[in-house]
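Subject: for your reference before the review

Hello V.,

The reviewers asked for a structural picture of the protein, and I figured it would be easier to keep everything in one thread rather than splitting it across files. Below is the amino acid sequence we used in the manuscript, unchanged from the supplementary table.
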Amino acid sequence: MERQHVDVLVIGAGISGISAASHVLRENPGATLVVLERRARVGGTWDLFRYPGIRSDSDMSTFGFGFRPWRGARILADGAEIRQYVEDTASDGGLLDRIRFGRRAVGADFSHATGRWTVEVVDEGTGERETYSAGYLVGATGYYDYDHPYRPDFPGEADYQGALVHPQHWPEDLDHTGKRVVVIGSGATAITLLPAMADRAEHVTMLQRSPTYVLALPEVDPLSFVLQKLRAPARLTHKVVRARNIAMQRGSYAFCRAYPRLARKVLLGLVRARAGKGVDMRHFSPRYKPWDQRLCVVPGGDLFKVLKSGRASVATDHIDTFTAGGIRLKSGRELRADIVVTATGLTVRLMGGMELTVDGHPVDVTDRVLYKAVLLEGVPNLSLVIGYTNASWTLKADLAAGYTARLLAHMRNHGHDIATPVASDADRSEFSVMGEALTSGYIARADKVMPRQGTRDPWRLWNNYYRDRAMLQDAPIDDSALRFTEAGAHEPTPAA
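And here is what came back from the structure prediction:
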């Protein structure tokens, strides 16, 4: 197939990709832009995951795009609503005609001679190969493997005669009505599945090795409700609620990190108040400090309601072995199960697994650091749109997308073809960009595949919205660590 050339090529049409494309076109209205999306619809994560009850685990005023307010009333929205919101954003922004669905990017090479990326793409419907070239490449695929979730092998699972499923690949025809269900896990997915499946199942048990901090939120934001009753303009309501929620997210995180003992007492006290006197706090008392792992939020306390009703329960134990009819625990107790859901997490993979090369030389991203948490050291004309792990993903994705749009406008206005961040060995640490702040399983696994954490600005990742906003939105583009050159010129010194 003939090579197709565009100014900007975005990989991924989920929240990150639609944010990136929207920002780039608003700041660079004459740019040619194409989005490559492996799936058949817009939405990314919110199109892939179809398990019962799937919803956001961040409030929608901050999880929605900053440039397109979320209009729903609920604090946490379900997956179908979010997917439709992302698609509506793409439609309103004129992006749908620019998206090539069913395309998987498998490799990309940057040439200093031409100042362009050449991207090899597979049409997953036909198996045919396509080639795109682009002046600038945006990786907006998130950071996990869509094909292979994290799924440990359990002893004796071959003997189990019931259904064994992972939430990432939920069977459309799975009927849990009247069934006994065991959900293995204690993270956001497991805590969502428990109340969502309890309405029709005979009983649902959440089996966890260790507890997670759980925080109940109202279903509807009281401030939004009041402002709407006062007939405040929708944009004003969005702006006020969003600013308040950003401050609360940042404030609560900082409080938990600074005063972990007090934060623990507060969080566990809120659980006791919600769950009632009969709750066994052993199931809700983690061994780690608050925000060593991400907090799990539940709308309207739905988790505690089904636990009090008796339709669901929590078991904190280790698996000894699967049996024909369920799971035997180390304590000797056996959990009968017609369905076992392994909500055991995700596998981290950057750029959807595509291979990156520069002038034919392979790029090992685990040896590189990120410039301003967006650009990959030593790799020209490439942005990675990665969201927060300690706040709403979209807050950071929007900042990264906005910075990319500003950088492209700067390059166009100054006649630059190539922008390359250049770091020294002293700028990189032993930690990955995800591996120092949180201790969740997938964060620890990410250490082997993600770029390194920097030791100082502009390579240090702070995971702080206010700091990132000043750096990405307000600071000038020109920086001594960012080299601008023209196509055909001598390439910058590569990273060690």
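For the response letter, the relevant points are probably these. The chain is about 30% helix and 25% strand. The first strand starts at residue 4 and ends at 11.

Happy to draft the paragraph if you're swamped.

O.
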